[in-house]
Amino acid sequence: MSRIVRGGLIQCANAVNDESVAVSEIQARALEAHLPMIEDAGRRGVQILCLQEIFNGPYFCPSQALRWYDAAEPVPGPTTELMQGLAKKYGMALVVPVYERESAGVYYNTAAVIDADGRYLGKYRKNHIPQCNPGFWEKFYFKPGNLGYPVFRTQFATVGVYICYDRHFPEGARALGLKGAEIVFNPSATVAGLSEHLWKLEQPAHAVANGYFLGAINRVGTEAPWNIGEFYGQSYFVDPRGKFLVTASRDRSELVMADMDMEVIEEVRRVWQFYRDRRPDSYSDLTAEK
User: Fold this and answer.
1) Residue positions annotated with a catalytic role
2) Which candidate in 95, 107, 239, 289 could, as Cys together with 50 as Cys, close a disulfide (CB 3.0–4.6 Å)?
3) Domain-located, residue 98
4) Cα–Cα distance between 161 and 184 in angstroms, integer?
5) Domain tally for the chain?
6) Residue 290 belongs to some domain of the structure
7) 38-48: pLDDT as tens digits
8) CATH number for the domain including 171?
9) Which residues of 194-211 are buried (b: 16+ CB within 10 A; e: fewer)?
10) Is 279 part of a structural domain of the chain?
11) Model pLDDT for residues 52-83, shown as the tens digit of each residue
């Protein structure tokens, strides 16, 4: 019997592109922009919803400005607690990417995972942190994750999270599959001219290589004052065969949804026996110091 899970992704333009506005106000306006779409997802029967990378504000990493440390908060914390209420209200599991403050001066790029009954299940901290042109100065803001590659058993499916730059590294994608992920979410912030030619290559390849569904989210629009390029949207779900189930626009804030049949995972893995035939005994070079 089919086990259908309705997934949702929200891509959204930043609400305030003005450096003269207080960080707290920018975050409040970003949250305000998301809430109607989150509630729309709940009303339309989405069972697992994922938001974009650091959803409640701009992608501030083109700068190296101390003011953005004010955007960090504990996880769990105020935003997580608000989302727990929405999850319980709609019976909808949520993946909520925020800027995490663990302690004074210690910050992570994090996604909280909340089950459909409002329970906080845990968090993933982005493991791969870029420091590269044009304008991705993330090491100024984030420590590398230290929680490994956890999976989270929601009421509807077992999910894993990979954040933005992580998607360029297949090792973590495989680790999530080995731990039982049925759906992997990759909330991102990436611009045209840099990675767009990879956007629909890498993540479908992860889905195929690991036999799971994958939801990829990118924000939309341009963000002043940095103006590093166009966040090109095109959020999508892809199945374990690499088939695109739904793709969003490149320039509009929107909710995209897909109904995913979890039985397809079993069907695909019976044909492509990558987990049976893998040879971890021969992979020691992958972790050897160079």
Assistant:
1) 53, 126, 164
2) 95
3) yes
4) 5
5) 1
6) no
7) 999 999 999 99
8) 3.60.110.10
9) bbbeebbebbbbbbbbbb
10) no
11) 999 999 999 999 999 999 999 999 999 999 99
